[in-house]
Every structure is written in C-alpha cells, then in structure tokens.
Amino acid sequence: MEPRLNLFTNEVASKFMKRFANASMVIHQAIPTTLHELVSLRVSQINGCGWCVDMHTKEAAAAGETAVRLSLVAVWRETTVFNEAERAALALAEEGTRLADAHEGVSDDTWEHVRKHFDENQIAGLVSLVGLVNAANRFAVIVHQRGGSYEPGMAPPS
C-alpha cells in the first residue's frame, strides 16, 4: 500500500516535519541516544507505527544497541536486560502513551521511579520525547507510512 501523503515531499508537510525534527534536537541533548531510541521504539510499538518501529530499531542498532535488547523492548518488564533507569524511562513511555487506559495517566510511583534516576532536564527530555514520538506515530499511521525501507540516518530524529 502506498502512503496517502508523502510527509517528506509535500510542501506543507515537509516544512512542518523539518520544524518538528528541529524540536527533537533539544531532546537529543538531554537523553543518551540508546535510551532515546529504546523509549521511541516502545512508544511506536504501542501505537502500531511500522515506519517508526522500523526507524527506531535501525537507529538504535546503528547507535550500538544489541539485537537481544531490541527484541525484548516490547516485554521489558519480563526481562533482565534493562537497568533500573531504563525501566523507569520505559514505564514512563508506556504510561505516557496509554493515557486513555488509566484515569491518572502517569502514576505517582512511576514518576518517583523516574525522579530517582534522572535529573530535571533529563526528565523534561523524556516527557518531551514521549509526546513527540506519540505525535510522530500519529502522522505516520494516518498517512499509511509503512515500515521496512528505512535506512539509518534517512530521516531527521524524532
């Protein structure tokens, strides 16, 4: 199936996507690349965004992430391969993505766990990342941007 709209070549969409990508550069300064990609991957898995899962899996691998850890992101709670800080970030990503599933959104327990492992700027980066990736997933899913053809470095980071 072809995309309904090419977000990279359409005049309005490409202008917007460039600005959207520029916003993500601030996040990259606050969060290590591998954590950035793990969180982005988990959000994209939850939202069923094939393009973003493809992109974040390949970008994470290019940044040195292992195949084992990439394979286990979807079931991170049931593994031993993620450290406590990563687990806190992944919990924040899940709860921040599944807002409709819980009346309180991100739980106080998850927030406290995040605060134990990250400083305020890193937390701001994580919160911004979760919001940004959720938005990016919606763009790609709405226009049927399919995964499979992404190459590392192909698109600006999100």
Automatic annotation (TrEMBL):
InterPro entries referenced in this protein's UniProt entry, alphabetically: AhpD-like, AhpD_core, CMD-like
Annotated GO MF terms: peroxiredoxin activity
Residue span, Carboxymuconolactone decarboxylase-like domain: 15-95
Alphabetical list of SUPFAM superfamilies matching this protein: AhpD-like (SSF69118)
Pfam families with a match to the protein in the record: CMD
NCBIfam families noted in UniProt: ahpD_dom
Protein name per Swiss-Prot or TrEMBL: Carboxymuconolactone decarboxylase family protein
